[in-house]
Amino acid sequence: xxxxxxxILGAGFGKACDFPLAKDLTGAVFSHTYPKDFWHPQMAQExxxxxxxxxxxxxxxxGQWPDFEDLITVLGEWNDxxxxxxxxxxxxxxxxxxxxxxxxxxxxCDNTKAARSHDNFKAVLEFVKRASAEDSPIISFNWDLLLExxxxxxxxxxxxRPATKGEVALLKPHGSVNLAEMPKxxxxxxxxxxxxxxxxxxxxxxxxxxxxxxxxxxASDKIAPFKARLLVxxxxxxxxxxTWIVLQWRWALNAVLQAEEIVVIGYSFPATDTRTLLLLRLxxxxxxxxxxxxxxxxxxxxxxxxxxxxLGTSIVTIEKSWQDALSDF
Length: 329
Fold this sequence. Notes:
The protein is α/β, with parallel strands linked by helices. The protein is built from twelve helices and eleven strands.
């Protein structure tokens, strides 16, 4: 009888198709938002000046960028602190945070389009095909649509819930760039706009709906009018209150509790992702048979050291890129 398996994916999975890791994300999104040929280059320089004031030891002009999560945390806490201190918000700080989060979505959508012609996209197709054949759920902490596009290419139905026969279960506890959450009345009004189409209601809870693009290839154009992509902001204090996000965590926990083997690919378990570590701690709790944990990453032993501090289960490491290790797990 086949081993029941569950996959957990982090940013290292998308790196195979040139998606940036967290440490490289700020520069990538900033360059996407304020390209060198931008019609008003002075604006880009003003934003760089703001970053230099926030991070005086970094040479922004020479390509030294703050970590994206640290930056979003600083921008959010800055205004919370200012408002609590003297009742004043900083318009420039508010604007930068809003623009970067908004353009994070469009940047990832553009990267997804480019990924389809990447040499390693064949490995992504192979991975999705394998997960489908195994009926193995995938828990991804990435916002991008690499797996959705692969599923679409293979003619497989990708669902954000436990799968039925013939479907691929892709659980995304940090949200996804092809989703938007809003009051239902707002969606009904926006749906009347001629260029807003090819959308479906992914879920509905009370007066709130989550809408999804029917085709992952055009998510950037279809979700952009709604302005509010369903993403858990990459900050130290993560907001998991969305009903859709709550369900993703519930189903993710069910997936790891039922799994006999958990394969972690390209996920480093950063200190601010407390709940993801808790996910594995709960998966290893109260088991008659120890769960098998496999970490696939070029720096897998570093991840093993981090996990070993709080997990009693044995951990197998594969120190390779996941696409080179496909036959090893």
